[in-house]
Amino acid sequence: MSLETASEPTISEQNVEQERLSLRRALIKGASREPLTVPAWLSPPGAEGNVLSLIAALGLRIRFDRPTVPDQFETESVRHRPARLLGPQARRLLCRLFGSSKKKDLPETAMRLLDLFSELDLHLHPFDYPELKTLMNADVAMLDANARRWLLDGKGDEPVLSLDDIGDDNWTSFTPAVRERFLLERRASNPAEARELCAAALGDDAASVRGKLLATLSVGLSADDVEYLESFAKDRAASVKNIAGALLARIEGTAAHTERLESAHEQLDLKSGGIIGRKKMLMPRVPKGTAKSKVDTWIANTFADVNPADLASKLGLTPKVFAAAIGNQTLKNTMFQNAVNARAFEFATLIAAEFDHRDAWALAGPGRFNSVDRNDRARLWECFERAVGTTSLIDACRLVDALYGTLRVPPPPKFIEALAAGKPWKQWTRAVAKDIDLDDQSAPQTIMTFAHSFHRDEWRNRFSELPPGLTTNGLAIADLLDAVEAQASASTD
Amino acid sequence: MAKSSPITLSRIEAVALDQASLNAARKLLNQSKWPSMEQDAGGRLLWGACQGSGATAYRVAVEIADLGAKCACPSRKFPCKHAIALMWWMAEQPEKISEGEIPEWVNEWQGRRRRTAPANDAGNAPGPQKSAKAAVAAKPAKPKDPERAKKQKERVRKAREKSIRQGLDELDTWIGDLVDRGFGGFSGQASEQCRLLAQRLVDAKAGGIAGQVDALPSLYFRTPEAERYDVLLKTLGGLHLLAQAYRRQEALDPALRADVRTRVGWTMTRDELFASKDAARVTSTWTVLATRRESQADRLVRYETWLAAANNEELQTAVLLDFVPAASAAGAGPSLEPGTTLDAELVFYPSATPLRAQIATQSNVQAARNAPSPRNALGAALAEYDRTLAQNPWVSEWPIAFNKARVLSDGNGRPWALDHDNTGVPLAGDSGSVLRGLDELELFGTFDGRELTLLAANSVLGPLWCTP
Q1: A467: cis peptide before it, omega within 30°?
Q2: How far apart, in whole angstroms, are the C-alpha atoms of residue A158 and residue A146?
Q3: What are the counts of helices (DSSP H) followed by strands (DSSP E) for chain B?
């Protein structure tokens, strides 16, 4: 169809454009208010002055317009590392488990997977970002630079910086979680440098952020940190002062340490019991009138950051006797945490030898051991062996799952072997099939716990006994872990 | 030796809702209707694709243990006739079912499934008796007098033509009134007035134009304010042009006439299309670039499946359309996944610019490594778009493909696709943002004159198949 006819003059671009602009006002106001004059060359024969023909011609002309290309574009700083991107099988499985069509989140499983990818230096494929937003939002700090930039681009005032470029000169521009991680890693390799970075940057942040960053000094804590920690005695926030005080209390030789130890010693009752009076029993001397609901908090606060080795020495007890004598669960857990903080793992193991599953559950919780080095966290599994072994199979499975969420390190094989063999396994699968709703998202987490490669094939054989939804999701997670680990080992060969 | 089957007719009779379901399923026991039928190595699952009246075949899956089933068809019966037919194939001709790897969509279904009660033998089933034997014995309906039917059809056609022309006159009057009142006042009464006119056009049997009028308010309001005047001009101008073309359709080229009639609301059934001598047929290896889903005002959900093939070094594209009632659209959808290839004969609806097609035959569905490479850069692709528009002024969006591209963001953060001489088009949505930082991209998308909506891309990181 053409606007040209044999007997009409050729319509030039300029003619049409001029008419369009001059008629714009008339069309907006209305022909009843501002009459439209249709040029002769725009009227088809027999329809001279036809306004609708004018509309049709102009409308068609506009369809050939194109948007004006801007003069300038943003400089692109995205850099891809194709060899570190997840492979096709892992991508497919991730999208199946976490794709946008899923109605519910799997936040814990998502965090564990991102943790694993980060550890193996594998990254989400950029083409999957829109589909995997749920997964990416689980732990933004664990994402690689490109993923983080894509997710945060245009949101809020936070600058979008490359995590690959984080350094001493720009670390303060990142989120508190990332800054905390940066300092923790630096403390592990160079405590003095980390302390200087912290000291230079802590001025204007809110108390919660200052406290979080200050707490990173718990890694590699030593007498060299005393002067800096003592400078917080006049901090404007009580919470920050308390954190500094707690750290000082852990450093032997400081006034805070001596004072804390003395105070803890005074609040303990050491009694003898048993038939012949040989059994020792350590109980906290809770002040009279303390409300029942506040007792545990009082115990945790009073005995926080007291090295159990120092306390045992002051009481004249051997570590073994001290550990066996602790008669209060909250006191036991507090002493355990103190031993871990002080990296006194043998003492921690002694205390944990008395743990039952209730003690273990009381210690399970996200973030509890965040400042503990990964290798040390792996060692802590030994402390829970008795607790896991002295409960029912179903509870043991759930406890191991909860501890995995706390320690963020997979359990050693012996924890899994005992739970995966023979008759107890059948009982567990029957219980799982009966108890677990298909919408219960804890099922994949449990499968993650047991998806150690040593046992993955064993688990695959038994998945058919589970309901279809769990089977498929469980197999998908096992396949995903296989694919990711295979890719990681191939890339290091 | 024939394979033994874990599915029996008595089990099928037990799960079928009624005799009508069995009768309908029986009619589907024709292998030409089943481009694929497969089962897993463990004999646990069955799946396949059954060609219905839509452009793409319906995906069907059955879990053998309890005869739980899933189908993408819009039927509200469960199990539907397609699922029953697949079970029937397994029961009577299991050798026709090949072994294959469980596809992702079946795994997805399994991942969400709850177990149903196992199917009992027919003897325990409640309700009226259903019989597979009765379905086999059912006689077809008596054919009507063909001459009488033809005359009736012609009467209906003439009446509709008259009605449509009346509707088009109303349309022109409406546009003229709007011009008199002025475009400036459109926004205040847009929704109500467009809805009223659309209803009258539906009554006039001009459903195609009615849909365009009904969609005008939402198009207008989602356009940036500075461009709304142009949107009105384009849309109203296009509607009047269409009305005029319809009135003079005898003078048009047959292919363009077909476009005009389709845009007004005339449809062609699948059988009519396949019987048409004007329908172009193309056999090739097609790559599924993308699928899209759109809810329409007429309570139908429209599914688009975009395909491309490299034919004689030229890139050819096609779109398959399926329409499903919104009430039963959940779980429905095209059977072809983006990122797959298939050998297929496509039959194109007659048009001055053929694009919409139906699949006549298909086989050999596989995963695609990449989309077929385009030969042109962006400038040439846009010139091709202009030529298409000149041939068919009612094209709303058109697929284009170009190479040597990159994606950059402008000062407002909007992604643009650019080639080496800085010819560029803005990208719709956010799928383009994942392509930043990559050079020498090959991009495929639909262009509406203002922006490009990505369908797929080839890159050094592999292909991108844009999901809706």
Answers
A1: no
A2: 15
A3: 12, 16
pLDDT tens-digit readout, B23-44: 999 999 988 889 889 998 888 8
Pick from B445, B405, B406: which is nearest to B429 by CA? B445
Residue with tokens 């759109």: B294
pLDDT tens string B341-377: 999 999 999 999 999 999 998 888 888 999 999 999 9
Minimal Cβ distance to B237: which of A59, A70, A101 = A59
Hunting for tokens 């004006």 — which residue is that?
Answer: A68
Non-local CB neighbours of A66 within 8 Å, separated by 6+ positions? B382, B425, B449
Partner-chain contact A62 B411, CB within 8 Å = no
Distance of alpha carbon A469 from alpha carbon A440, whole angstroms:
10
d(CA B249, CA A330): 89
CA distance B9 to A488: 50
Spatial separation of the C-alpha atoms in residues B360 and B282, rounded to whole Å:
10
Nearest alpha-carbon partner for B176 in B188, B164, B187, B168: B168
Chain-chain contact of B179 with A67 (C-beta, under 8 angstroms): no
For A310, A312, A323, A371, B133, the CA distances from A279, given in Å and listed in that order, are: 21, 15, 12, 36, 84
Packing angle, helices B254-264 and B207-222, rounded to 10: 70
CB contact under 8 A, A69 and B175: no
**Angle at the Cα of B279 from the Cα atoms of B276 and B285, rounded to 5 degrees:** 130
- Round to whole Å and give the CA distance between A426 and A464: 12
- Give chain B's length: 468
Considering only the beta carbons, identify the residue of B108, B409, B451 that sits closest to A74: B409
Interface contact A24-B244, CB threshold 8 A:
no
HEC profile of B339-407: CEEEEEEEEECCCCCCCEEEEEEEEEEEECCCCCCCCCCHHHHHHHHHHHHHHCCCCCCEEEEEEEEEE
Q: Does residue A310 contact residue A341 with C-beta atoms inside 8 Å?
A: no
For the record, the structure tokens of B359 come out as 């699949």
Determine whether the interchain pair B418/A73 forms a contact, defined as Cβ–Cβ distance below 8 Å: yes
Q: Which of A55, A76, A467 sits opposite B115 (nearest CB)?
A: A467
Q: Is B323 on the interface with A (CB under 8 A)?
A: no
E strand or H helix that includes residue A266: helix A255-266
Backbone angles phi, psi at A114, to 5 degrees: -65, -40
Place of tokens 């030789």: A253
Pairs of CB atoms within 8 A across A/B: 173
Q: What is the rounded (10 degree) CA torsion for A451, A457, A462, A468?
A: 70
Q: Is the four-CA dihedral A355, A357, A363, A366 of positive or negative sign?
A: positive
pLDDT digits 0-9 by tens, A31-45: 888 777 777 666 666
Highest mean pLDDT among A248-252, B139-143, B370-374: B370-374
Backbone angles phi, psi at B406, to 5 degrees: -145, 165
pLDDT surpasses 50 at B270 = yes
The total number of residues written for chain A in this structure: 493
Q: Which two tokens stand for residue B23?
A: 């009768």
User: Could you say which residues from 211 to 250 on chain B have a Cβ atom under 8 Å away from some Cβ of chain A?
Assistant: 229-230, 233-238, 240-241, 244-245
Partner-chain contact B437 A146, CB within 8 Å: yes
Interface test with B, best of A4, A13, A58, A73 (most B CBs within 10 A): A73
And the tokens for B189?
A: 């009464």
Structure tokens at B165: 């022309």
- Is B31:B97 a contact under the CB 8 Å cutoff? no
Nearest to B104 among A62, A64, A96 (CB): A96
Q: Residue A438: list chain B partners with CB under 8 A.
A: 112, 114
Q: At residue B45, what is the residue type?
A: L
Which residues does chain A have within 8 Å of residue B180's beta carbon, measured at their own beta carbons? 30-32
**Rg of chain A on CA atoms, in Å:** 34
